[in-house]
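Incident log, entry 3
Record: Metal-dependent hydrolase (259 residues)
Problem: checksum mismatch between cached and fresh output.
Input:
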Amino acid sequence: MPRSLRFLTYNVHSCFGTDRKLDPARIAAVVSECRPDIIALQEVDVGRARSGGIDQAHMIATHLNMEAHFHPALHLKDERYGDAVLTALPMRLVKADVLPSTGEPRGALWVEIDLADAKLQVIVTHLGLRGSERVRQATTLLGPGWLGGIGQADARVILAGDLNAIARSAAYKLLAAHLKDVQLQLKAKPRPTFPSRLPLLRLDHVFVGEGIGVRDCKVHSSALARVASDHLPILVELEIDPPAKGCAGEPEVDEAAMS
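Fresh output:
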């Protein structure tokens, strides 16, 4: 039987809201409204002076009774900034590395989550602001060091994050040629996620591979979500099909590419 799963992706803007208040607990409250099993976060601060030096990934995970894996795309002395995956399910780090960047450094984080009857490969990223840069980054994620290295028809894959890319962009089209955009799997019109107070652009995305069905998908736009960050989170209800027996091997940790 397929495994039901609630997945959320959220650019938390270093936990600064549209009211300019710093409040990681408010971000955790928005996430709690959605009751997700797995959370992909972008723009997370760890040890940064601007956000009080706290570990936002750990703090939000603690509020939610979850564990976190964090990868800093930007690392300046003791200050870090990047992406995180949070869940209470068994999780192991597969890979965390930088992506080719010409502006602000960008990276990606890959974890494997054990669903007992399937192993879910989750990759979270935050792509750059320039179109050519995003194409290079998307090409890297589709290459042998990332999605292209999984190499199994029965792999269960989710790619999520703030791609800084609308549906007409080259980077989006590149990813959409290999994976399914969850917002396009339902009859409802795709909804924008940015800016949170009056969303105009669909910059945040969840893509899934084969063997993953989409039961429901919504952009979470509660009153709290509209003020907690400048992006709105996407919540997806997924159905994960178990792989055929003998086809669910695990990806190896690429220690040489870890950062």
